[in-house]
Amino acid sequence: MSNTVHFKKVAIVGVGLIGGSLALDMKLKGLAGTIVGIGRSIANLNIALDLNIVDSITQDIAEGVRGADLVVVAVPVLKVASVIEAAAPYLADGAIVTDVGSVKAELIKEVLPLLPPSVSFVPAHPVAGTENSGAGAAITGLFNGRNCIITPVGKGGPDNPEAVEAVTGLWRALGSNVVIMDALTHDRILSAVSHLPHVIAYTLVNMVANAGKGLGANGSDTDMLGYSAGGFRDFTRIASSSPEMWADICEMNSTAIVEMIEAFESELDSLKRVIKKRDNDSMKAEFNKAKALRDALIKGG
Amino acid sequence: MSNTVHFKKVAIVGVGLIGGSLALDMKLKGLAGTIVGIGRSIANLNIALDLNIVDSITQDIAEGVRGADLVVVAVPVLKVASVIEAAAPYLADGAIVTDVGSVKAELIKEVLPLLPPSVSFVPAHPVAGTENSGAGAAITGLFNGRNCIITPVGKGGPDNPEAVEAVTGLWRALGSNVVIMDALTHDRILSAVSHLPHVIAYTLVNMVANAGKGLGANGSDTDMLGYSAGGFRDFTRIASSSPEMWADICEMNSTAIVEMIEAFESELDSLKRVIKKRDNDSMKAEFNKAKALRDALIKGG
């Protein structure tokens, strides 16, 4: 790319898996003059400094964001607005504020009233991650080849095309495929491909644990989970994700997630009826359809 | 183990992932004098012979099982009874017939009337597998450290303690942890930890594909699946499993699977109500419970 972006001072609030990996790649690719890590946990900030993920650290948000031309808020979605509120008085004129949260519509509604008109807000969501967290989990190349969805706030808010361009350029420089869409579409897509699977995984683990109650000899409990094999363990890997983070996402994206749960319930219910009737052909047709879709996904990368 | 089992002639009907891996390990550990692979596909049988998984091959079930002291029926669950019916007239006196299917109660009901009184049937289910199939997918050590559930048919059927002992010894020699339980308990446990997750994975992929319909600009379709990340792909890996095999399992274990779908629906429904209310604390409590259970599972191996 000829016009690679460059920021003089980048402030990253929340140096966890996403914030830390972003800092790591920005340094590696020379996209930032200096990067300051801001957070509440001094232990985590020290890890970030020791691992050379950031150039300096502070627990003081005012000090951290002062003079920064890019502020990345990489804290749990429910905390983004309060971080921005605390930072707002100290933001430089012309600064760009962006985030990495997996819920957008409600976040934008909360954030816009908090920002001075001289500051641009560009909501972004790099669709990447692992179930690990903290600065120690940061890795290079996490965003390479992954989608990053940007949902510009439009003319109604403190947003400008240059700021959207700059944030787009940043993620492209890290190898991401940038997609621009509106916030509500983003929230519906993510509720389907990410939030719902997490809800299902948590539900399944709890349900299987309950299903063994009283099933053993003389009404004792059977440890059903103990009979699970590799398929179940892969399937429920995401149930090991942070409960705090996922409760926050479910709270913020409640409407879309409930809608997707209902779509899923209705699909499951019709499959249940087919299984009840032992209608082998209809089951096979459903399973074949799903297998073809899923296999295509893997081939597509 | 001091009393390692040994069979003079083992006939394996269906030399796929499970049958092939079993043959491989029995040869490796010297548990069989000779192993004959029986199947319908000559191409697959030739692969098994070329890979030295079996000593000889035949498409003729009568020829294959003649004189065998152990017959392992490793075909899809819905085909087990018809294989046993075809083999029955040619089975040696005192032969042990066993299977590897993941549904037991209905299978036993079908099989028992087909066997001569001089033959023992010992239903077994090694809880292991991958999403691959065919003789080419056979690997050594597949059963090592995994559960193998044996569901003896009891005094009512052509079963005897020595035969159960022999099949138990076989799986133990391959490193499996043998668990003895009744067929209905087996079917309920497996419907929860294995069959239901497959049903859910297939359902989720189809539902997400449908959810994108008409969501794009001007009512065009959005490829929601294209926005999925690693979590979704791991979660739906089992949706790439054989549709034929899973339709058969769902048909045969219909009652238990429907029961588990209903338990799951009710658990999901109560979580949905909590998400609808944006009750963060209750969500977090549910997610924490699931995470603790799932993390313990991984630590346990």
Describe this structure in words.
2 copies of one chain form a homodimer. By secondary structure, chain A is of the alpha/beta class. Chain A has 2 domains: 175 residues, NAD(P)-binding Rossmann-like Domain (Rossmann fold), CATH 3.40.50; 115 residues, Orthogonal Bundle (6-phosphogluconate dehydrogenase C-terminal fold). Chain A has 11 helices and 9 strands. Chain A has a 6-stranded parallel β-sheet, sandwiched between helices. In chain A, strands 7-8-9 form a 3-stranded mixed β-sheet, covered by helices on one side. The radius of gyration of chain A is 22 Å and the shape is elongated. Chain A starts with 6 loop residues before the first strand and ends with a helix. Chains A and B meet through helix 7, helix 8, helix 9, helix 10 and helix 11 of A and helix 7, helix 8, helix 9, helix 10 and helix 11 of B.
The most extensive interface between chains reads: A-B, 94 and 94 residues
Oligomer: homodimer
Written as H for each helix and E for each strand, in order along the chain, the element string of chain A is EHEHEHEHEHEEEHEHHHHH
Q: At CATH's second level, what is the architecture of the largest domain in chain A?
A: 3-Layer(aba) Sandwich
Name of the top-level CATH class of the largest domain in chain A:
Alpha Beta
Low-confidence stretches of chain A: none
* Strand residue content of chain A: 5-15%
The DSSP helix count of chain A reads 11
CATH homologous superfamily heading of the largest domain in chain A: NAD(P)-binding Rossmann-like Domain
Percent in helix of chain A: 40-55%
Q: Under CATH, the topology of the largest domain in chain A is which?
A: Rossmann fold
Structural class of chain A, by secondary structure, is alpha/beta
